[in-house]
Amino acid sequence: MTLSVFDPELDPDGRYAALIVEMLEAMFRSR
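^ that's the sequence the OP posted. Answer follows.
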């Protein structure tokens, strides 16, 4: 996971960014 996925040219729909955010939230909740 790198910040490059937040580049609108590589991720025009923001899908990868949303997936990463969901995974991060899931990790914080599991603590």
